[in-house]
Amino acid sequence: xxxxxxxxxxxxxxxxxxxxxxxxxxxxxxxxxxxxxxxxxxxxxxxxxxxxxxxxxxxxxxxxxxxxxxxxxxxxxxxxxxxxxxxxxxxxxxxxxxxxxxxxxxxxxxxxxxxxxxxxxxxxxxxxxxxxxxxxxxxxxxxxxxxxxxxxxxxxxxxxxxxxxxxxxxxxxxxxxxxxxxxxxxxxxxxxxxxxxxxxxxxxxxxxxxxxxxxxxxxxxxxxxxxxxxxxxxxxxxxxxxxxxxxxxxxxxxxxxxxxxxxxxxxxxxxxxxxxxxxxxxxxxxxxxxxxxxxxxxxxxxxxxxxxxxxxxxxxxxxxxxxxxxxxxxxxxxxxxxxxxxxxxxxxxxxxxxxxxxxxxxxxxxxxxxxxxxxxxxxxxxxxxxxxxxxxxxxxxxxxxxxxxxxxxxxxxxxxxxxxxxxxxxxxxxxxxxxxxxxxxxxxxxxxxxxxxxxxxxxxxxxxxxxxxxxxx
Length: 473
What we know:
This protein has a domain of 155 residues. It has a 28-stranded mixed beta sheet that branches. By secondary structure, it is mainly β. A hairpin with a 2-residue loop joins strand 36 and strand 37. Helix content is 7%, strand content 51%. The radius of gyration is 27 Å and the shape is elongated. It contains two helices and 46 strands.
């Protein structure tokens, strides 16, 4: 009986090997289960046929394929390129790859018109299950959006580089604080107003644009429906280099973008900007938060070149924020950091430098915990225009400004607080309160008619042990 059983097993193995070899010659690979096919494709027709076959589970691209229209990946099917060099899937007339759910897309270069969605969720699915994107080079938007009627998606993305994208025309936009936010090259967005709708996401090594060749619109955009409604829970977001440009015209006050934007309805347990984040245009924030973040760490420089392009804007809540490298802005009205709503428990910068007129170094108008600057906080500008909650206002480029409603538990500066502009104070407490402050190398106003420190409208701050250095005569 045992010999019969062994003979049967050997026969089954030989049949399986023969079928595998036979089907490999015909472009069809058998998986461990004879009911699940792994299909290798080299042409568009082969790809369409494989995606249309209910028994297909994995489709392997072995060459460049060009499609004149959208391609749709049915539920449960994975699409894969070569492991050593990604295969290329292109769309010649602005199409993209639509996912129905429980799909894995890996080791591919996906190319479409930059203004088109290269990878998207097909609307109308109740649940999308798990969507996995791995090792992708993309031209066009990665737009993973839940709409009305869709309750769930678990998104895992790793090693994604969106080389080029133009997401400015998409009309599904968050609105608050007097502005609309343009979508990003890599967008995860729960646009379902049902509070039971939820996206969970783990996003690792997401990069967008290239230095000198940024994506258009926001860079990385993650948001829920609003303060109430569908939500997004981010376990982890890590970014590679991020370069974005909103291409907004001068004077625009009601649209903004950001290199990395976490919006309302979204909570991130941890955000790490491993490489630099750079924005180039008007109203292009570098980092912006309207949601909630447990821990946010920036390991490389945060750079802004455009007017009102703020280094870090926090309108939400953050437990701990650390910028291990410098924040530098160059445009008019481009503040280094501002807290106009929400709060942050602990925030720490290496240094902040602003160069433009109206570019305040740090401005706070809500209660926060501890603020630490390891080196200098320095501004070079004078009076200029800056976007504040959807309105362009004239501001002096104060180095440190505490406004009415702003309360800071403790400020610690390892270097100096310095302003250079004419009639620009270095440290201003206008109706706010600082409970404790220490500045190792003094507070210096170097511009004509400027003050090292000014308390007004009931503003309160300790003055003992502060070295105040007025402008030289």
